[in-house]
Every structure is written in C-alpha cells, then in structure tokens.
Amino acid sequence: MKITRIAVFSAALPISGGYSFAKGKSVATADTTVVRIDTDADITGWGEACPLGPFYLPSYAEGVRTGLSVLAPHLIGLDPRQIGALNRKMDRELRGHPYVKSAIDVAAHDILGKAGGLPVYALLGGRQMEAAPMYWSVSQGDPDDMRRAVARARQQGYSQFQLKVGGDPATDIERIRAGMDGMRPGETFLCDANTGWRRDEALKVAFATEDLDYILEQPCELYADNLSVRRRVRQTLKLDESLQTPESISQALADDACDVVCIKITKMGGLTKSRFARDLLAAHGIPMTVEDVWGAEIVTAALGHLAISTAPEAILNTTDLHSYNEVHIATGARQARQGQLWVSDAPGLGVEPDLAMFDKPVAAYG
Amino acid sequence: MKITRISAYQAKLPYVGGTYCWGRGNVIDTALTTVVTVDTDARISGCGECCPFGANYLAAYPEGIVPALARLAPALIGKDPRQLHAIERAMDNALKGHVYAKTALDNACWDILGKACDLPVWALLGGRLTDGAPMYRVVPQKPLEESAREMAAHRKAGYRQFQIKVGNDWKADIDSILQAASLLQPGENAYADANMGWTVDEAVKVVRAVRDTGLMIEQPCATYEECLHVRSRSELPTKLDECVTGIDVAERIVHDRSAEVVCLKISNLGGLTKARRVRDYLIEHGLSVVSEDTWGGEITTAAVAHFAASTPPELLYNTTDLHNYDTVTSGTPGPRTAAGRLYAGEAPGLGVEPNLTALGQPVAVYQ
After folding, report:
1. Does one domain contain both A199 and A62?
2. Is the bond leading into B333 cis (omega within 30 degrees of zero)?
3. How far is the alpha carbon of B58 from chain A, nearest alpha carbon, in Å?
4. Do A97 and B61 touch (CB under 8 A)?
C-alpha cells in the first residue's frame, strides 16, 4: 500500500462562549487543520490538529499547514501502515514541530485500522473499558459564572470539572471556592493555572484553599518552579505544559514531580508518541488525562481510542473536545453523554468526516 | 519611535564547497535565508537574518519563518523597537516557542537601538572585550587525504582552529580524529563535532579510541542526556551545541558540569536578547562559549561578530565567518576578517545593510 495523496484542509471552529484561561489569554474561534491521506488501496485515513491559539503551547494553526507543506511531499509513496517508519521519516525530514506531524500519524492509524479491520483502540492495546470518564473544562471568568457553569455540567452528567485559574491570585481563590461550592461525593475537581502564576502566587492560592480537595494543575511556567511549588503544597499536582516530550516525562518521573499527567495527542506529536508516553506513565502508576489540545470530531475520535485503551486505574479522565465548538466536522465515531465518552468499534477511527466541508483543500500533495 | 513596517526577504545561499555532509548521513548544498527589515517613524531601519540549516538540523526550518512572522509582525507594528524586553514579551505573547522565527526581528531591533544611540551593538552588549575573535574553520566529512588538504588550506588562510566533522561512521571517525590530531601544529587547536550523529555506544567507542589525542568532542549524540552519558565515560573535554536551546539547558550544563565549552547559536536561542542572557550566565560560571549561528550571510555574521566582540576573550572559545561559507551575499559590508580573526566594526547598530540586489522583492510586508 502506498500513500498517493495528502490533502490538507482548514476549518474554523467557533467556541461556544469563547474559552479563556491564564494570563488573559482567550480564544473565540479555533483554526483546525484536517488531513486526508489517500492510498492506492482505496483506503483513506483522516487526522486533525488544532492548536488553541498561537500562545498556549508552541504550536499555531498556520504552522501546522506550513510544516505539512514541507513534510507531505516526502511521504508520498510510503506505506502508511508502517507507522514506525513513517514517524522516523517525518523526524528525519523535519526536526521538532511535533504538532505538524500529529495529524499524519493519526491518519496513519486510521488507515492501519481500516486495513486490518480493527478499531484504532485495538492497535493501542485493546479496549480496557466500556466508556471513559470525562471532565468538563470551565473557562476562566467571574467566580459566580464559573459556579453556574459547574452546575450546568453537573446536570449534564459530568462528575469531573476543571476550573481555569492562573489569573489574579485573590480572584482565583474565589473562583476555586465558588466552583467547588456544592461539590458532591465522588466528584473530582482540577484547578488549572495553565502556567499563569509565579511561585509565590501559586503558594498563596494553594495555601488559601488547602481545605479543599482538588488537583492543582500546571501552576507555573517553568518546570523548576512547579517542582518547588510541589514540594511545599499539600495538593496533588498535575503537569501539562511542562511535559511535551518523552524526555520531560522521564525527568518528571525521576524527580517525583507530579501525580497526574496530561497527555495531549497533538502536543506529543501523534498517537505513536502519545501511546509511548501513556504506557510509560501507566507502568509508573501515574494516572493521566488522555486528550488533545483542541479540535473537533476527528480529534475526539483519536483521543477517545487512546483513552479507551488505557487501563482504568491509569486514566483520570478524558474530554469531548468537539462539544465545546459550534461547528461539527464529522459524524460516526464517538458519543459523549452523561459524563462518559464512547468510541466506535468500526475499523480505524470510525469517524465519517463531512465530505462537503472537506471538498476544497488548502493544499494537496502527490 | 514606533515600528511602521516589517518586511521579509528570502534568498538561497549555496554552499561554497558544493555539497555539505554533516552528522549521520545528512547532505545539504543550499540553505534558504530570511532577512527581516524593520522600519520606523524615525527614519531608522534595522535588519536581522535567520538561516536554518535545512529542516532537520535543529527544530527550525526556513519555510516556517514567514508564516510565523505573520503572527509576530502585527504584534510589533506601532511598538518602540528600542524597548527590547517589551518587544521580546510581545513576540512571546503572540507566538509561543518558535524562537528561530523571532531571531531576525530581535536582532533588527538591536540594530535600531544601536543606530538610535549611535553605538555599535557590541557597546550595548557589554562593550568590546575581544578585539578580533579567533575563528575556526570546518574540516568537512571527506576522505582522509582531502580532509588533510582542506586543513592545510585553512591554515594557509590564517585559521588556527579546526572543527573536524564526524558522526557518520564511527570507525572512520576515529581515523579522522587521529589524523587531525597528528596534523596539528603548535598553537593550533582541533575538535571533533559529530553533530548528534552517534548512538551512545558508538560515541563511547570513539572517545575511548581517541582518548590520547586530548581533543574535545562536540555534541556526540542527539540529546543532552545522551551526551551526559558519553561524558561520564570520557576523559576528553566536551562541547555542547545543538541541544543548547535556552537558559534552562545552560543551567543544567552548569549544574551538571557537563561541558567545558558551550556553543551559542543565536537563532537556536532566539536572537541576541535571549542569547546574551545565556552567554552572561555561562561566563559567570566560568564556562567558555562559541558565538555563532546555524548558517547565514553577512547580516547573521554581523550579529555573531558583535556577540563575540562583547564576550571576554579568555572565555570566547571561537567564532566563525558564516558568510564566507556562501556564494551569495545577504548584506554589506560583511564583518572584517583577517588572519583567522573576526572583527565587529565601529558603525552604529549591526553595521550592515541588506543586499537588496540579492534579496529581491520582499516576500511579505506588514504595516
């Protein structure tokens, strides 16, 4: 089997109510890139990569497509089922920039699954659960608005909630108290600063809310600062932005730097690299959020397969990213209801992109 | 003073020696450079240049610069280019990471600041501590006889430091290193640069075999951790290069004492603002540095020259005249070189203007 064509599409994803997080950052509309890989075997694979603005992680939407313009020509004629070789080729032609490579790797998994008649989760270790528990992310805002957002999500069946903090510490303390007001037994709260605090600000917030049972997520920007905070607060610590590579994860394990890790497929550079990180962390008994940076239905399908193939004790939660957008790009794969994410048993990702939306590529190679 | 317009130009820079082989089986013959000019309402303009060395050397690729500028440039229009830290923050807020794409803009702002104060950039980086920075020349991956001839030719041209390129074939590399050591004349220096090409076991075999040469080994393997592993098995001095991507790595180097010499490639660090911080930190801890960049023409080399000139001579290991590796000129005048030394001039700013003949029309303009 050979790759005959790689088509790259772009779609705007308006986010319901917009999404605000640390340091005054906010995204109203995300720009997603969808990749379609066609083969000489009549099997087509789909992948999607959607940075959350150019200021959240070192990735940006135009960069995905520019990177693909350099990478894609080198992949024409290769066997997409040889995913290890495909990754080596990508790394050989373009160093770094994992966010550029992610959608190709996901599409290759879609193809391998379809070629083998297996759902992608079967290529990632097999189904470990019926459905994966989801969290709902609450955009940073007025504390009472955030309290109401939690209540709405709770009504929809979510039992895990992530409050976006990382702004002014005094307001963040209010946000945490308001958001967690009415916390029910069995619920999980994460308070995610998205690197927004200095050390002293993180300590201030953590000490002031020490009576509350939540997971503190990515308080500071620098790894060393997070490590310092971790050593002084009682809260369980989750890292996300600090862990973008396998090396950083190894370092975090060696340093006992965190108790929970966020795996984001596009952040790591695809399912291959994410699966590797997932397996390493699971072997250490470190639970994970298994998700992606942002995206629509193809992203959610991919993250769903990775989530569903994670051991139950190793997965804290996942998320239905497509639910946050007002535009939908595919049908088929997954359902999200009552706080749980299901994935399809159809071969590959099990997702049917809306071909009318993906009619005119911004670029095509091959 | 406000930035009124930012323009980006591109030009191909063919390698003067035809085909350049580096590391483990990599080949390049032409690099694509991007030159950025920044115009202001004070009739002062600055320029900067960034030339990634292909797409697979560092996490940087030439085609990735202009799309990143589409994010960065609008954030800088209307801002005062002399406020270097505010410019840095504005760029980092507009686009995370991608420091290679920020380099040319940062350097152009230094150029403007220098022109605005009527001072050369070295005067703003600490002053001229080194007058005439010693340069090294590359002895490429070639058959032994050719390499010996190249080394002799460089010697004749006045160079006294030779960087022996290895990393493709560890057995042949041992011979290359031993030969280089045997050809050295008094007062000369050579070191072997694998450009990340060896696996740890290959590197360990090499350092063991060439131990008696005493020659420094540069970036034997891809990652910092692998190089640390090799160092633990080696008595030879170590130079780190490609993995030096920021102050965090510099801190690890100091903490681990994992290198004697650290190569500072300005675009690997993100421009003079960031590079200067790393340089000052390392020399504060007694480590030597190399001032250079990935590739580039005269504008890149001008920044390299000012950076080198403002580094204390006993901790400036060497620098290089990157523009002399190309057959196309990105700017004029190029920094003066004589008897194996690189000089930064007295002209304000970087002291170089873009060569618009070679650069042609801008590929992008923001205003």
Report:
1. no
2. yes
3. 6
4. yes
Chain-centre distance for alpha carbon A157: 21
* B207 plus B164 within the same structural domain: yes
Same domain? B167 vs B96? no
**Per-residue model confidence as pLDDT tens digits over A217-262:** 999 999 999 999 999 999 999 999 999 998 899 999 999 999 999 9
What CATH number has the domain bearing residue B23?
A: 3.30.390.10
Chain A CB within 8 Å of residue B95 CB = yes
Residue A115 has pLDDT above 80, yes or no: yes
Both B141 and B229 in one domain: the answer is yes
Please give the backbone phi and psi of residue B348, each rounded to the nearest 5 degrees, phi first.
-65, 155
CA-based nearest distance B62→chain A, Å: 10
How far is B206 from B148, CA to CA, in rounded Å?
Answer: 20
Strand-pairing partners, residue B341, are B134, B338
- Give pLDDT, residue A24: 86
| pLDDT under 70: residue ranges of chain B | none
Q: Which residues pair with B262 in a beta bridge?
A: B240, B289
Count of the separate structural domains present in chain B: 2
Per-residue burial over A136-173, b = 16 or more CB atoms within 10 Å of its CB, e = otherwise: bbbbbbebebbbebbeebbeeebbbbbbbbbbebeebb
Catalytic residue among B165, B171, B239, B274: B165
Residue-number span of the structural domain to which B188 is assigned:
124-353
Tell if the pTM clears 0.80, that is, is over it: yes
Does A165 lie in the same domain as A105?
Answer: no
Are A92 and B56 an interchain contact pair (Cβ–Cβ within 8 Å)?
Answer: yes
A135 & A245 share domain: yes
Residues in A touching B93 (Cβ below 8 Å) = 55
ipTM associated with this complex: 0.92
Residue A9 DSSP label: E
Residue A136 shares a structural domain with residue A73:
no
Answer yes or no: do A247 and B223 touch at CB < 8 A. yes
Whose tokens are 């920007």? That residue is A221
Q: Does B256 touch chain A (CB under 8 A)?
A: no
Which chain B residues touch A223 with a CB distance below 8 Å?
A: 248
Note whether A187 and A223 are same-domain residues: yes
One domain, residues A324 and A273: yes
A199 and A222 within one domain? yes
Q: What is the reported pLDDT for A276? A: 96
